[in-house]
Amino acid sequence: MMLDGPRALSWIASSFEAAHHLPHVPPGHKCGRLHGHGFGVRIVADAAQCGQRELARAWAPLHRRLNHHYLNDIAGLDNPTSEVLAQWLHQQLSDAVPGLAWVEVRETHSAGSQFDGKTFRIWKEQRFESAIPFDADGNYTGHSYLVRLMLSGGIDRTMGWLLDFGDVKDRFKPIYRQLDHNPLDKLAGVRGADSAAVAEWIHAQLSPLVPELSRIDLMESDDAGVSLHFRQDMRWPLL
Protein backbone atom coordinates (compact mmCIF):
# COMPACT_ATOMS: atom_id res chain seq x y z
CA MET A 1 0.00 0.00 0.00
CA MET A 2 1.13 3.56 -0.64
CA LEU A 3 -0.17 7.11 -0.20
CA ASP A 4 -1.13 9.37 -3.10
CA GLY A 5 -1.88 12.71 -1.48
CA PRO A 6 -4.89 12.27 0.82
CA ARG A 7 -5.79 8.78 -0.42
CA ALA A 8 -4.18 5.39 0.08
CA LEU A 9 -3.59 3.13 -2.90
CA SER A 10 -3.39 -0.64 -2.90
CA TRP A 11 -1.60 -2.47 -5.68
CA ILE A 12 -0.33 -5.80 -6.87
CA ALA A 13 2.50 -6.57 -9.28
CA SER A 14 2.63 -9.59 -11.52
CA SER A 15 4.04 -10.78 -14.83
CA PHE A 16 3.25 -12.95 -17.81
CA GLU A 17 5.07 -14.18 -20.90
CA ALA A 18 3.52 -13.93 -24.32
CA ALA A 19 4.26 -13.62 -28.03
CA HIS A 20 2.98 -10.87 -30.30
CA HIS A 21 3.73 -8.70 -33.29
CA LEU A 22 2.66 -5.19 -34.27
CA PRO A 23 0.88 -5.30 -37.64
CA HIS A 24 0.94 -1.58 -38.50
CA VAL A 25 4.62 -0.72 -38.11
CA PRO A 26 6.64 0.24 -41.22
CA PRO A 27 8.35 -2.53 -43.22
CA GLY A 28 11.58 -3.61 -41.56
CA HIS A 29 10.57 -2.45 -38.06
CA LYS A 30 11.69 -5.13 -35.60
CA CYS A 31 8.32 -5.13 -33.81
CA GLY A 32 6.63 -6.23 -37.02
CA ARG A 33 8.28 -9.62 -36.63
CA LEU A 34 6.86 -12.33 -34.42
CA HIS A 35 8.55 -11.91 -31.06
CA GLY A 36 7.61 -11.79 -27.39
CA HIS A 37 8.27 -10.37 -23.96
CA GLY A 38 8.19 -11.15 -20.31
CA PHE A 39 5.64 -8.44 -19.47
CA GLY A 40 5.33 -6.81 -16.07
CA VAL A 41 1.92 -5.66 -14.84
CA ARG A 42 0.90 -3.49 -11.92
CA ILE A 43 -2.73 -2.88 -10.97
CA VAL A 44 -3.44 0.07 -8.68
CA ALA A 45 -6.71 0.92 -6.92
CA ASP A 46 -8.14 3.11 -4.19
CA ALA A 47 -7.41 1.15 -1.01
CA ALA A 48 -10.67 2.29 0.57
CA GLN A 49 -12.58 0.49 -2.18
CA CYS A 50 -10.41 -2.47 -3.13
CA GLY A 51 -7.69 -4.40 -1.32
CA GLN A 52 -4.86 -6.57 -2.56
CA ARG A 53 -6.82 -9.81 -2.27
CA GLU A 54 -9.57 -8.41 -4.47
CA LEU A 55 -6.99 -7.17 -6.97
CA ALA A 56 -5.34 -10.59 -7.11
CA ARG A 57 -8.72 -12.27 -7.57
CA ALA A 58 -9.61 -9.95 -10.47
CA TRP A 59 -6.21 -10.40 -12.12
CA ALA A 60 -6.10 -14.22 -11.99
CA PRO A 61 -8.41 -14.96 -14.97
CA LEU A 62 -6.70 -12.31 -17.08
CA HIS A 63 -3.33 -13.84 -16.31
CA ARG A 64 -4.63 -17.18 -17.57
CA ARG A 65 -5.83 -15.55 -20.80
CA LEU A 66 -2.50 -13.82 -21.45
CA ASN A 67 0.26 -16.05 -20.12
CA HIS A 68 1.97 -18.19 -22.79
CA HIS A 69 -0.46 -17.06 -25.47
CA TYR A 70 -0.24 -15.17 -28.77
CA LEU A 71 -1.68 -11.77 -27.89
CA ASN A 72 -2.83 -10.91 -31.41
CA ASP A 73 -5.35 -13.77 -31.25
CA ILE A 74 -7.12 -12.29 -28.21
CA ALA A 75 -10.18 -10.16 -28.96
CA GLY A 76 -9.27 -6.49 -28.63
CA LEU A 77 -5.52 -7.11 -28.90
CA ASP A 78 -5.03 -7.38 -32.65
CA ASN A 79 -2.45 -4.55 -32.34
CA PRO A 80 -0.98 -5.28 -28.88
CA THR A 81 1.27 -2.33 -28.15
CA SER A 82 2.01 -1.59 -24.50
CA GLU A 83 -0.51 1.25 -24.57
CA VAL A 84 -3.25 -0.89 -26.12
CA LEU A 85 -2.52 -3.67 -23.63
CA ALA A 86 -2.73 -1.26 -20.67
CA GLN A 87 -6.02 0.10 -22.00
CA TRP A 88 -7.39 -3.42 -22.59
CA LEU A 89 -6.48 -4.50 -19.07
CA HIS A 90 -8.08 -1.37 -17.63
CA GLN A 91 -11.28 -2.12 -19.55
CA GLN A 92 -11.29 -5.76 -18.45
CA LEU A 93 -10.74 -4.81 -14.80
CA SER A 94 -12.97 -1.75 -14.50
CA ASP A 95 -16.13 -3.66 -13.53
CA ALA A 96 -14.37 -6.09 -11.19
CA VAL A 97 -12.16 -3.53 -9.40
CA PRO A 98 -13.98 -0.66 -7.69
CA GLY A 99 -11.78 2.39 -7.42
CA LEU A 100 -9.42 1.23 -10.16
CA ALA A 101 -6.78 3.96 -10.46
CA TRP A 102 -4.48 2.80 -13.24
CA VAL A 103 -2.82 -0.15 -14.91
CA GLU A 104 0.86 -0.28 -15.77
CA VAL A 105 2.46 -2.55 -18.35
CA ARG A 106 6.23 -2.97 -18.57
CA GLU A 107 7.31 -4.32 -21.92
CA THR A 108 11.00 -4.36 -20.98
CA HIS A 109 13.01 -3.42 -17.90
CA SER A 110 13.41 0.11 -19.31
CA ALA A 111 10.09 0.93 -20.99
CA GLY A 112 6.43 0.79 -20.12
CA SER A 113 3.02 2.38 -20.29
CA GLN A 114 0.15 3.34 -18.04
CA PHE A 115 -3.54 4.00 -18.58
CA ASP A 116 -5.94 5.47 -16.01
CA GLY A 117 -9.12 5.42 -18.08
CA LYS A 118 -8.44 8.79 -19.70
CA THR A 119 -4.75 9.48 -20.25
CA PHE A 120 -1.96 7.36 -21.67
CA ARG A 121 1.50 7.71 -20.19
CA ILE A 122 4.69 6.01 -21.31
CA TRP A 123 8.26 6.07 -20.07
CA LYS A 124 11.67 5.17 -21.40
CA GLU A 125 14.72 4.78 -19.17
CA GLN A 126 18.44 5.02 -19.94
CA ARG A 127 21.58 4.99 -17.84
CA PHE A 128 24.62 7.18 -18.31
CA GLU A 129 28.01 7.55 -16.65
CA SER A 130 29.41 11.03 -15.99
CA ALA A 131 31.99 13.08 -14.13
CA ILE A 132 30.96 15.73 -11.60
CA PRO A 133 32.99 18.25 -9.55
CA PHE A 134 34.14 16.77 -6.26
CA ASP A 135 35.70 19.65 -4.33
CA ALA A 136 36.75 23.29 -4.49
CA ASP A 137 40.19 22.31 -5.79
CA GLY A 138 38.78 21.31 -9.17
CA ASN A 139 38.87 17.56 -8.65
CA TYR A 140 36.22 15.32 -10.20
CA THR A 141 34.54 12.10 -9.24
CA GLY A 142 32.31 9.79 -11.23
CA HIS A 143 28.67 8.87 -10.91
CA SER A 144 26.11 6.58 -12.54
CA TYR A 145 22.66 8.00 -13.33
CA LEU A 146 19.33 6.69 -14.54
CA VAL A 147 17.11 9.08 -16.48
CA ARG A 148 13.43 8.29 -16.93
CA LEU A 149 11.64 10.20 -19.69
CA MET A 150 7.86 10.29 -19.31
CA LEU A 151 5.37 11.27 -21.98
CA SER A 152 1.61 11.71 -21.82
CA GLY A 153 -1.25 12.24 -24.22
CA GLY A 154 -3.49 10.32 -26.58
CA ILE A 155 -2.47 7.47 -28.84
CA ASP A 156 -2.42 7.19 -32.60
CA ARG A 157 -5.40 4.96 -33.33
CA THR A 158 -3.66 3.23 -36.23
CA MET A 159 -0.24 2.68 -34.67
CA GLY A 160 -1.62 2.09 -31.19
CA TRP A 161 1.06 4.06 -29.41
CA LEU A 162 1.68 7.51 -28.00
CA LEU A 163 5.18 7.42 -29.48
CA ASP A 164 7.35 4.49 -30.50
CA PHE A 165 9.79 3.68 -27.68
CA GLY A 166 12.49 3.51 -30.35
CA ASP A 167 11.66 7.04 -31.49
CA VAL A 168 11.94 8.31 -27.91
CA LYS A 169 15.40 6.75 -27.68
CA ASP A 170 16.48 8.12 -31.07
CA ARG A 171 15.37 11.67 -30.26
CA PHE A 172 17.17 11.51 -26.94
CA LYS A 173 20.36 10.07 -28.46
CA PRO A 174 22.18 13.37 -29.26
CA ILE A 175 21.45 14.58 -25.73
CA TYR A 176 22.53 11.27 -24.24
CA ARG A 177 25.86 11.53 -26.06
CA GLN A 178 26.54 14.85 -24.36
CA LEU A 179 25.75 13.34 -20.94
CA ASP A 180 27.45 9.97 -21.14
CA HIS A 181 31.18 9.82 -20.35
CA ASN A 182 31.40 13.59 -20.06
CA PRO A 183 31.72 16.15 -17.21
CA LEU A 184 28.23 17.44 -16.41
CA ASP A 185 29.36 20.92 -15.35
CA LYS A 186 30.72 21.51 -18.88
CA LEU A 187 27.38 21.04 -20.65
CA ALA A 188 26.59 24.13 -22.70
CA GLY A 189 24.02 26.21 -20.83
CA VAL A 190 23.79 24.06 -17.70
CA ARG A 191 23.51 26.08 -14.47
CA GLY A 192 25.29 23.48 -12.34
CA ALA A 193 26.18 19.82 -12.02
CA ASP A 194 23.55 18.92 -9.39
CA SER A 195 20.77 16.59 -10.47
CA ALA A 196 18.08 19.29 -10.56
CA ALA A 197 20.17 21.47 -12.86
CA VAL A 198 20.98 18.55 -15.15
CA ALA A 199 17.31 17.51 -15.33
CA GLU A 200 16.36 21.09 -16.25
CA TRP A 201 19.05 21.04 -18.94
CA ILE A 202 17.70 17.76 -20.35
CA HIS A 203 14.22 19.28 -20.49
CA ALA A 204 15.45 22.36 -22.34
CA GLN A 205 17.22 20.19 -24.91
CA LEU A 206 14.57 17.50 -25.35
CA SER A 207 11.20 19.27 -25.12
CA PRO A 208 11.45 20.80 -28.63
CA LEU A 209 12.09 17.29 -30.00
CA VAL A 210 9.47 15.50 -27.89
CA PRO A 211 6.50 17.83 -27.25
CA GLU A 212 4.73 14.99 -25.40
CA LEU A 213 7.42 15.12 -22.69
CA SER A 214 5.67 15.63 -19.36
CA ARG A 215 8.09 14.55 -16.64
CA ILE A 216 11.76 13.74 -16.14
CA ASP A 217 13.12 11.65 -13.28
CA LEU A 218 16.89 11.75 -12.81
CA MET A 219 17.96 9.11 -10.31
CA GLU A 220 21.31 9.26 -8.55
CA SER A 221 20.57 5.90 -6.90
CA ASP A 222 17.60 3.67 -6.13
CA ASP A 223 16.92 5.85 -3.09
CA ALA A 224 17.64 9.39 -4.31
CA GLY A 225 16.84 11.56 -7.29
CA VAL A 226 14.83 14.49 -8.62
CA SER A 227 11.59 14.73 -10.59
CA LEU A 228 10.56 17.59 -12.85
CA HIS A 229 6.83 17.78 -13.65
CA PHE A 230 5.57 19.78 -16.60
CA ARG A 231 1.91 18.81 -16.20
CA GLN A 232 -0.13 18.60 -13.01
CA ASP A 233 -1.44 15.13 -13.84
CA MET A 234 2.13 13.81 -14.10
CA ARG A 235 2.53 13.83 -10.33
CA TRP A 236 1.45 10.19 -10.30
CA PRO A 237 4.00 7.88 -8.71
CA LEU A 238 5.92 5.34 -10.73
CA LEU A 239 5.98 2.35 -8.41
Automatic annotation (TrEMBL):
<dbReference type="InterPro" id="IPR038418">
    <property type="entry name" value="6-PTP_synth/QueD_sf"/>
</dbReference>
<keyword id="KW-0862">Zinc</keyword>
<keyword id="KW-0479">Metal-binding</keyword>
<comment type="pathway">
    <text>Purine metabolism; 7-cyano-7-deazaguanine biosynthesis.</text>
</comment>
<keyword id="KW-0456">Lyase</keyword>
<dbReference type="GO" id="GO:0070497">
    <property type="term" value="F:6-carboxytetrahydropterin synthase activity"/>
</dbReference>
<protein>
    <recommendedName>
        <fullName>6-carboxy-5,6,7,8-tetrahydropterin synthase</fullName>
        <ecNumber>4.1.2.50</ecNumber>
    </recommendedName>
</protein>
<dbReference type="InterPro" id="IPR007115">
    <property type="entry name" value="6-PTP_synth/QueD"/>
</dbReference>
<dbReference type="GO" id="GO:0046872">
    <property type="term" value="F:metal ion binding"/>
</dbReference>
<comment type="similarity">
    <text>Belongs to the PTPS family. QueD subfamily.</text>
</comment>
<dbReference type="Pfam" id="PF01242">
    <property type="entry name" value="PTPS"/>
</dbReference>
